Amino acid sequence: MNNFSASARLNFIFFFCFLFISFSLQAQQKPKLLAGPVVGSVTPTSAKVWIGYRGTGKNTLILMDTTAKKIFYPLAESHIAGPKGQVALTMQFEKLEPGHYYNIIIEIDGWGKEVRYGFKTPLTEETQNFNFLLGSCLLLETGLPRIFYPGFKAFILNRMKDKNADFMLWMGDNVYLLWKDHKNYNNMFKRNMKMRSRFKKLNRFLANQPNVAGWDDHDFGPNNAGSDWHLKDTSLKIFKGFWPNTYPENQALYGNYFKYSYYDADFFVTDNRYFKAPHADTAGSFLGETQILWLKQQLQTSQATFKFIVIGSQVISEKRFGEKYIDYDRERRDLLDFIADNNIKGTMFLTGDMHFSELCKKDWNGYPMYDYTCSSLTSVPLPVRLVGLNKNPLRIPGTKKLGHNFGRISISGEAGNRICTLENFKRNGKRKWVYSINQNELSKP
Hints:
This protein is α+β, with helices and mostly antiparallel strands. About 25% of the residues lie in helices and about 30% in strands.
Protein backbone atom coordinates (compact mmCIF):
# COMPACT_ATOMS: atom_id res chain seq x y z
CA MET A 1 0.00 0.00 0.00
CA ASN A 2 2.78 2.39 0.92
CA ASN A 3 4.66 1.54 -2.29
CA PHE A 4 1.50 2.12 -4.33
CA SER A 5 0.93 5.48 -2.65
CA ALA A 6 4.51 6.57 -3.31
CA SER A 7 4.21 5.50 -6.95
CA ALA A 8 0.91 7.30 -7.32
CA ARG A 9 2.34 10.47 -5.83
CA LEU A 10 5.30 10.27 -8.20
CA ASN A 11 3.02 9.84 -11.22
CA PHE A 12 0.91 12.73 -9.98
CA ILE A 13 4.00 14.97 -9.80
CA PHE A 14 5.16 13.89 -13.28
CA PHE A 15 1.70 14.59 -14.69
CA PHE A 16 1.58 18.13 -13.35
CA CYS A 17 5.19 18.77 -14.44
CA PHE A 18 4.17 17.70 -17.93
CA LEU A 19 1.17 20.04 -17.87
CA PHE A 20 3.33 22.92 -16.61
CA ILE A 21 5.92 22.40 -19.35
CA SER A 22 3.20 22.09 -22.00
CA PHE A 23 1.48 25.29 -20.90
CA SER A 24 4.86 27.07 -20.72
CA LEU A 25 5.73 26.04 -24.26
CA GLN A 26 2.33 27.13 -25.51
CA ALA A 27 2.74 30.49 -23.77
CA GLN A 28 6.17 30.93 -25.36
CA GLN A 29 4.77 30.25 -28.84
CA LYS A 30 1.60 32.32 -28.46
CA PRO A 31 1.64 35.32 -30.84
CA LYS A 32 2.50 38.50 -28.99
CA LEU A 33 3.70 42.06 -29.51
CA LEU A 34 7.03 42.12 -27.67
CA ALA A 35 8.12 45.73 -28.23
CA GLY A 36 7.33 48.78 -30.25
CA PRO A 37 6.38 50.58 -32.23
CA VAL A 38 9.68 52.40 -32.76
CA VAL A 39 9.35 55.35 -35.11
CA GLY A 40 12.52 55.66 -37.19
CA SER A 41 13.45 58.06 -39.97
CA VAL A 42 10.56 60.36 -40.91
CA THR A 43 10.52 62.78 -43.85
CA PRO A 44 7.66 64.93 -45.22
CA THR A 45 6.52 62.02 -47.41
CA SER A 46 7.96 58.82 -45.88
CA ALA A 47 8.48 56.97 -42.63
CA LYS A 48 9.98 53.79 -41.23
CA VAL A 49 8.36 52.00 -38.28
CA TRP A 50 9.67 49.00 -36.30
CA ILE A 51 8.02 46.40 -34.08
CA GLY A 52 9.25 43.28 -32.29
CA TYR A 53 6.84 40.37 -32.10
CA ARG A 54 6.50 36.62 -31.73
CA GLY A 55 4.32 34.66 -34.11
CA THR A 56 3.64 33.63 -37.69
CA GLY A 57 0.95 34.40 -40.23
CA LYS A 58 -0.27 37.85 -41.21
CA ASN A 59 1.68 40.47 -39.33
CA THR A 60 1.75 44.06 -40.49
CA LEU A 61 1.67 47.76 -39.70
CA ILE A 62 -0.84 50.25 -41.10
CA LEU A 63 -0.83 54.03 -40.89
CA MET A 64 -4.00 56.07 -40.50
CA ASP A 65 -3.79 59.68 -41.72
CA THR A 66 -5.88 61.43 -39.06
CA THR A 67 -6.23 64.54 -41.24
CA ALA A 68 -7.21 62.99 -44.58
CA LYS A 69 -8.84 59.92 -42.97
CA LYS A 70 -6.85 57.70 -45.29
CA ILE A 71 -5.16 54.35 -44.76
CA PHE A 72 -1.54 53.75 -45.82
CA TYR A 73 -0.08 50.29 -46.26
CA PRO A 74 3.69 49.61 -46.30
CA LEU A 75 5.42 49.56 -49.67
CA ALA A 76 8.41 47.57 -48.40
CA GLU A 77 9.44 45.56 -45.38
CA SER A 78 12.56 43.97 -43.94
CA HIS A 79 12.98 41.69 -40.97
CA ILE A 80 15.44 39.60 -39.04
CA ALA A 81 14.50 36.53 -37.02
CA GLY A 82 15.66 35.54 -33.56
CA PRO A 83 15.25 32.55 -31.26
CA LYS A 84 11.86 31.23 -30.08
CA GLY A 85 9.94 32.68 -33.01
CA GLN A 86 10.89 36.30 -32.29
CA VAL A 87 11.00 38.73 -35.22
CA ALA A 88 12.26 42.31 -35.59
CA LEU A 89 10.20 43.89 -38.39
CA THR A 90 10.69 47.24 -40.14
CA MET A 91 8.13 48.62 -42.59
CA GLN A 92 8.63 51.44 -45.06
CA PHE A 93 5.82 53.87 -45.89
CA GLU A 94 5.86 56.25 -48.86
CA LYS A 95 3.65 58.95 -50.42
CA LEU A 96 2.64 60.39 -47.06
CA GLU A 97 1.40 63.96 -46.72
CA PRO A 98 3.62 66.66 -45.17
CA GLY A 99 2.47 68.03 -41.83
CA HIS A 100 -0.07 65.26 -41.17
CA TYR A 101 -0.40 63.13 -38.05
CA TYR A 102 -0.43 59.35 -38.52
CA ASN A 103 -1.69 56.76 -36.06
CA ILE A 104 0.19 53.46 -36.06
CA ILE A 105 -2.03 50.37 -36.27
CA ILE A 106 -0.33 47.10 -35.35
CA GLU A 107 -1.84 43.83 -36.55
CA ILE A 108 -0.43 40.45 -35.47
CA ASP A 109 -2.17 37.22 -36.43
CA GLY A 110 -3.45 35.52 -33.28
CA TRP A 111 -2.76 38.60 -31.12
CA GLY A 112 -5.12 41.16 -32.58
CA LYS A 113 -5.15 44.71 -33.92
CA GLU A 114 -4.39 47.81 -31.90
CA VAL A 115 -3.64 51.49 -32.41
CA ARG A 116 -0.42 52.42 -30.61
CA TYR A 117 1.13 55.89 -30.71
CA GLY A 118 1.76 57.89 -33.86
CA PHE A 119 3.91 60.61 -35.41
CA LYS A 120 3.71 63.79 -37.46
CA THR A 121 5.54 64.29 -40.74
CA PRO A 122 7.54 67.52 -41.10
CA LEU A 123 6.44 70.23 -43.53
CA THR A 124 8.15 70.83 -46.87
CA GLU A 125 9.25 74.40 -46.09
CA GLU A 126 13.01 74.67 -45.74
CA THR A 127 12.96 77.04 -42.76
CA GLN A 128 11.05 75.95 -39.66
CA ASN A 129 11.87 76.15 -35.99
CA PHE A 130 12.54 72.67 -34.60
CA ASN A 131 14.46 70.85 -31.90
CA PHE A 132 15.84 67.41 -31.21
CA LEU A 133 17.23 65.52 -28.23
CA LEU A 134 20.60 63.80 -28.15
CA GLY A 135 22.41 61.41 -25.86
CA SER A 136 24.54 58.30 -25.59
CA CYS A 137 25.44 55.41 -23.29
CA LEU A 138 22.13 53.87 -22.23
CA LEU A 139 22.94 51.01 -19.86
CA LEU A 140 19.86 49.19 -18.56
CA GLU A 141 20.13 45.91 -16.66
CA THR A 142 17.92 43.49 -14.80
CA GLY A 143 18.68 40.97 -12.07
CA LEU A 144 22.17 40.27 -10.74
CA PRO A 145 24.11 42.34 -13.37
CA ARG A 146 22.69 45.47 -11.74
CA ILE A 147 25.20 44.97 -8.92
CA PHE A 148 28.14 45.32 -11.34
CA TYR A 149 26.57 47.65 -13.91
CA PRO A 150 24.20 49.92 -11.98
CA GLY A 151 22.61 51.53 -15.02
CA PHE A 152 18.95 51.28 -14.15
CA LYS A 153 17.82 54.87 -13.68
CA ALA A 154 15.50 54.70 -16.66
CA PHE A 155 13.30 57.52 -15.33
CA ILE A 156 15.56 59.96 -17.23
CA LEU A 157 13.65 58.76 -20.30
CA ASN A 158 10.43 60.16 -18.82
CA ARG A 159 12.04 63.56 -18.41
CA MET A 160 13.27 63.38 -22.00
CA LYS A 161 9.79 62.42 -23.18
CA ASP A 162 8.42 65.51 -21.41
CA LYS A 163 10.49 67.74 -23.73
CA ASN A 164 8.28 66.83 -26.73
CA ALA A 165 11.17 66.97 -29.18
CA ASP A 166 10.78 66.54 -32.93
CA PHE A 167 13.12 63.54 -32.87
CA MET A 168 15.84 61.81 -30.84
CA LEU A 169 19.44 61.40 -31.95
CA TRP A 170 21.13 58.34 -30.41
CA MET A 171 24.94 58.70 -30.57
CA GLY A 172 26.10 55.21 -29.68
CA ASP A 173 26.17 52.68 -26.85
CA ASN A 174 22.39 52.66 -27.15
CA VAL A 175 22.61 49.00 -26.12
CA TYR A 176 25.38 47.38 -24.08
CA LEU A 177 26.46 43.97 -25.33
CA LEU A 178 28.05 42.61 -22.15
CA TRP A 179 29.66 39.30 -21.26
CA LYS A 180 28.09 36.63 -23.47
CA ASP A 181 25.78 39.08 -25.29
CA HIS A 182 28.22 39.55 -28.17
CA LYS A 183 29.23 35.89 -28.50
CA ASN A 184 26.84 35.07 -31.38
CA TYR A 185 23.86 36.23 -33.42
CA ASN A 186 21.17 34.81 -31.12
CA ASN A 187 22.66 36.44 -28.03
CA MET A 188 22.90 39.83 -29.75
CA PHE A 189 19.30 39.53 -30.90
CA LYS A 190 18.05 38.52 -27.44
CA ARG A 191 19.90 41.38 -25.75
CA ASN A 192 18.45 43.98 -28.11
CA MET A 193 14.92 42.60 -27.84
CA LYS A 194 15.20 42.34 -24.06
CA MET A 195 16.08 46.03 -23.82
CA ARG A 196 12.87 47.04 -25.55
CA SER A 197 10.52 44.43 -24.12
CA ARG A 198 11.61 44.64 -20.46
CA PHE A 199 12.00 48.39 -20.01
CA LYS A 200 8.63 50.03 -20.56
CA LYS A 201 10.00 53.55 -20.12
CA LEU A 202 12.35 52.93 -23.05
CA ASN A 203 9.59 51.33 -25.12
CA ARG A 204 7.30 54.32 -24.56
CA PHE A 205 10.08 56.82 -25.28
CA LEU A 206 11.03 55.15 -28.57
CA ALA A 207 7.39 55.37 -29.66
CA ASN A 208 7.01 58.99 -28.60
CA GLN A 209 9.01 60.60 -31.44
CA PRO A 210 11.11 59.60 -34.46
CA ASN A 211 14.55 58.17 -33.67
CA VAL A 212 17.84 58.38 -35.57
CA ALA A 213 20.63 56.12 -34.29
CA GLY A 214 24.35 55.64 -34.75
CA TRP A 215 26.48 53.15 -32.85
CA ASP A 216 29.66 52.84 -30.82
CA ASP A 217 31.67 49.95 -29.42
CA HIS A 218 29.07 48.50 -27.05
CA ASP A 219 26.38 48.26 -29.74
CA PHE A 220 29.06 46.72 -31.95
CA GLY A 221 30.83 44.14 -29.78
CA PRO A 222 33.59 44.09 -27.14
CA ASN A 223 34.99 47.26 -25.60
CA ASN A 224 36.81 49.45 -28.20
CA ALA A 225 36.33 46.79 -30.91
CA GLY A 226 37.12 47.69 -34.52
CA SER A 227 37.57 46.26 -37.99
CA ASP A 228 39.24 43.10 -36.66
CA TRP A 229 36.08 42.09 -34.75
CA HIS A 230 35.16 38.76 -36.33
CA LEU A 231 31.41 39.26 -35.78
CA LYS A 232 31.25 42.78 -37.17
CA ASP A 233 28.89 41.79 -39.99
CA THR A 234 26.67 39.99 -37.50
CA SER A 235 26.42 43.02 -35.22
CA LEU A 236 25.81 45.23 -38.28
CA LYS A 237 22.87 43.03 -39.32
CA ILE A 238 21.44 43.13 -35.80
CA PHE A 239 21.80 46.91 -35.48
CA LYS A 240 20.16 47.59 -38.84
CA GLY A 241 17.42 45.13 -37.95
CA PHE A 242 16.56 47.00 -34.74
CA TRP A 243 17.05 50.64 -35.80
CA PRO A 244 14.91 51.84 -38.77
CA ASN A 245 17.39 54.39 -40.13
CA THR A 246 17.59 55.82 -43.64
CA TYR A 247 20.43 53.74 -45.01
CA PRO A 248 21.91 54.22 -48.52
CA GLU A 249 20.24 52.10 -51.18
CA ASN A 250 23.67 51.04 -52.42
CA GLN A 251 24.28 47.87 -50.42
CA ALA A 252 27.94 47.92 -51.48
CA LEU A 253 28.48 50.65 -48.90
CA TYR A 254 29.25 48.38 -45.98
CA GLY A 255 29.28 49.85 -42.54
CA ASN A 256 26.79 51.76 -40.42
CA TYR A 257 26.74 55.29 -41.85
CA PHE A 258 24.05 57.38 -43.52
CA LYS A 259 22.63 60.86 -44.01
CA TYR A 260 19.39 62.18 -42.50
CA SER A 261 17.87 65.56 -43.35
CA TYR A 262 15.39 67.56 -41.28
CA TYR A 263 14.37 70.98 -42.58
CA ASP A 264 17.60 72.99 -43.08
CA ALA A 265 19.86 70.60 -41.15
CA ASP A 266 21.76 67.59 -42.48
CA PHE A 267 22.96 64.85 -40.14
CA PHE A 268 25.89 62.69 -41.23
CA VAL A 269 25.78 59.73 -38.88
CA THR A 270 29.16 58.04 -39.16
CA ASP A 271 30.55 54.62 -38.25
CA ASN A 272 33.64 54.66 -36.01
CA ARG A 273 33.75 50.85 -35.61
CA TYR A 274 33.45 48.83 -38.80
CA PHE A 275 36.56 50.32 -40.47
CA LYS A 276 38.59 51.26 -37.37
CA ALA A 277 42.22 50.13 -37.29
CA PRO A 278 43.81 48.80 -34.07
CA HIS A 279 43.72 51.24 -31.16
CA ALA A 280 46.15 54.18 -31.10
CA ASP A 281 47.31 53.68 -34.68
CA THR A 282 47.86 57.38 -35.40
CA ALA A 283 48.46 56.70 -39.10
CA GLY A 284 45.59 54.23 -39.37
CA SER A 285 41.93 54.49 -40.27
CA PHE A 286 39.13 55.51 -37.95
CA LEU A 287 36.27 56.07 -40.37
CA GLY A 288 38.10 54.48 -43.28
CA GLU A 289 38.89 55.68 -46.80
CA THR A 290 35.51 54.84 -48.35
CA GLN A 291 33.50 56.48 -45.58
CA ILE A 292 35.74 59.58 -45.50
CA LEU A 293 35.29 59.99 -49.26
CA TRP A 294 31.50 59.66 -48.85
CA LEU A 295 31.50 62.19 -45.99
CA LYS A 296 33.55 64.76 -47.92
CA GLN A 297 31.29 64.46 -50.95
CA GLN A 298 28.18 64.81 -48.80
CA LEU A 299 29.55 67.85 -46.98
CA GLN A 300 30.62 69.57 -50.17
CA THR A 301 27.22 69.13 -51.87
CA SER A 302 25.05 69.82 -48.82
CA GLN A 303 22.94 72.99 -49.00
CA ALA A 304 21.83 72.73 -45.37
CA THR A 305 22.29 75.65 -42.98
CA PHE A 306 23.69 73.31 -40.33
CA LYS A 307 25.73 70.18 -41.01
CA PHE A 308 26.00 67.92 -37.97
CA ILE A 309 28.65 65.21 -38.11
CA VAL A 310 27.75 62.49 -35.60
CA ILE A 311 30.63 60.31 -34.31
CA GLY A 312 30.69 57.99 -31.31
CA SER A 313 34.07 59.33 -30.13
CA GLN A 314 35.23 62.87 -29.36
CA VAL A 315 36.77 64.80 -32.27
CA ILE A 316 38.04 68.16 -31.04
CA SER A 317 39.26 67.33 -27.52
CA GLU A 318 42.97 66.57 -27.34
CA LYS A 319 43.00 65.12 -23.83
CA ARG A 320 44.58 61.66 -23.96
CA PHE A 321 41.98 59.62 -22.15
CA GLY A 322 39.55 57.14 -23.60
CA GLU A 323 39.14 56.52 -27.29
CA LYS A 324 39.19 59.70 -29.38
CA TYR A 325 39.64 60.70 -33.00
CA ILE A 326 43.03 62.20 -32.13
CA ASP A 327 44.28 58.61 -31.66
CA TYR A 328 44.01 58.43 -35.47
CA ASP A 329 45.35 61.91 -36.01
CA ARG A 330 46.35 61.67 -39.68
CA GLU A 331 42.77 60.96 -40.75
CA ARG A 332 41.41 63.48 -38.24
CA ARG A 333 43.64 66.25 -39.52
CA ASP A 334 42.72 65.41 -43.10
CA LEU A 335 38.99 65.76 -42.34
CA LEU A 336 39.36 68.99 -40.34
CA ASP A 337 41.64 70.46 -43.02
CA PHE A 338 39.03 69.60 -45.65
CA ILE A 339 36.26 71.37 -43.74
CA ALA A 340 38.40 74.46 -43.11
CA ASP A 341 40.06 74.64 -46.55
CA ASN A 342 36.70 74.33 -48.33
CA ASN A 343 34.93 76.52 -45.76
CA ILE A 344 32.08 74.03 -45.30
CA LYS A 345 29.73 76.44 -43.56
CA GLY A 346 27.60 75.38 -40.61
CA THR A 347 29.61 72.29 -39.62
CA MET A 348 29.49 70.99 -36.05
CA PHE A 349 30.44 67.66 -34.39
CA LEU A 350 28.09 65.77 -32.07
CA THR A 351 29.76 63.01 -30.04
CA GLY A 352 29.18 60.62 -27.14
CA ASP A 353 31.08 57.83 -25.34
CA MET A 354 32.85 59.76 -22.57
CA HIS A 355 30.36 59.40 -19.67
CA PHE A 356 30.41 63.15 -19.13
CA SER A 357 29.31 66.11 -21.24
CA GLU A 358 31.09 69.21 -22.48
CA LEU A 359 31.22 71.64 -25.38
CA CYS A 360 34.67 72.08 -26.93
CA LYS A 361 35.84 74.65 -29.45
CA LYS A 362 39.08 74.93 -31.41
CA ASP A 363 40.15 77.30 -34.15
CA TRP A 364 41.32 75.18 -37.08
CA ASN A 365 43.00 77.18 -39.83
CA GLY A 366 40.55 80.01 -39.19
CA TYR A 367 37.46 77.80 -38.91
CA PRO A 368 35.74 77.57 -35.47
CA MET A 369 35.28 73.83 -34.84
CA TYR A 370 32.67 72.91 -32.21
CA ASP A 371 32.19 69.47 -30.63
CA TYR A 372 29.21 68.88 -28.33
CA THR A 373 29.88 65.70 -26.32
CA CYS A 374 26.74 64.41 -24.58
CA SER A 375 27.08 61.38 -22.27
CA SER A 376 25.87 59.40 -20.39
CA LEU A 377 22.14 58.73 -20.19
CA THR A 378 22.28 55.97 -17.58
CA SER A 379 25.73 54.37 -17.70
CA VAL A 380 28.21 54.85 -14.84
CA PRO A 381 29.43 58.49 -14.82
CA LEU A 382 33.16 59.03 -15.30
CA PRO A 383 35.10 60.32 -12.26
CA VAL A 384 36.59 63.21 -14.25
CA ARG A 385 38.73 64.56 -11.44
CA LEU A 386 40.38 61.18 -10.90
CA VAL A 387 41.47 60.74 -14.50
CA GLY A 388 42.81 64.22 -15.14
CA LEU A 389 39.99 65.52 -17.33
CA ASN A 390 38.76 68.18 -14.95
CA LYS A 391 40.71 70.80 -16.91
CA ASN A 392 40.32 70.89 -20.66
CA PRO A 393 41.64 74.06 -22.33
CA LEU A 394 39.32 73.51 -25.30
CA ARG A 395 36.18 73.23 -23.15
CA ILE A 396 33.93 76.29 -23.18
CA PRO A 397 33.66 77.41 -19.54
CA GLY A 398 30.51 76.30 -17.75
CA THR A 399 29.65 73.45 -20.12
CA LYS A 400 31.01 70.50 -18.12
CA LYS A 401 28.36 68.13 -16.80
CA LEU A 402 29.08 65.07 -14.70
CA GLY A 403 26.42 62.52 -13.86
CA HIS A 404 23.54 61.35 -16.00
CA ASN A 405 22.33 63.90 -18.52
CA PHE A 406 20.90 64.51 -21.98
CA GLY A 407 21.03 67.27 -24.53
CA ARG A 408 18.74 69.29 -26.74
CA ILE A 409 19.55 71.32 -29.84
CA SER A 410 17.07 73.89 -31.17
CA ILE A 411 17.22 75.56 -34.56
CA SER A 412 15.33 78.84 -34.85
CA GLY A 413 15.24 82.23 -36.54
CA GLU A 414 14.84 83.65 -40.02
CA ALA A 415 16.63 82.33 -43.10
CA GLY A 416 20.19 83.68 -43.25
CA ASN A 417 20.22 84.37 -39.52
CA ARG A 418 19.45 80.97 -37.99
CA ILE A 419 20.44 80.25 -34.39
CA CYS A 420 21.63 76.89 -33.09
CA THR A 421 20.92 76.66 -29.35
CA LEU A 422 22.65 73.87 -27.45
CA GLU A 423 21.35 72.83 -24.03
CA ASN A 424 22.29 70.22 -21.46
CA PHE A 425 19.85 68.79 -18.91
CA LYS A 426 20.27 66.90 -15.65
CA ARG A 427 18.51 63.56 -15.26
CA ASN A 428 15.62 65.33 -13.49
CA GLY A 429 15.00 67.42 -16.61
CA LYS A 430 16.36 70.70 -15.21
CA ARG A 431 18.69 72.62 -17.49
CA LYS A 432 22.38 72.67 -16.58
CA TRP A 433 23.68 75.04 -19.28
CA VAL A 434 22.77 76.69 -22.59
CA TYR A 435 24.96 78.03 -25.41
CA SER A 436 23.88 79.66 -28.70
CA ILE A 437 25.73 79.84 -32.04
CA ASN A 438 24.64 81.92 -35.02
CA GLN A 439 24.92 80.18 -38.39
CA ASN A 440 27.23 82.94 -39.61
CA GLU A 441 29.77 82.09 -36.90
CA LEU A 442 30.31 78.60 -38.34
CA SER A 443 32.59 79.60 -41.19
CA LYS A 444 35.89 81.26 -41.90
CA PRO A 445 35.93 85.07 -41.81
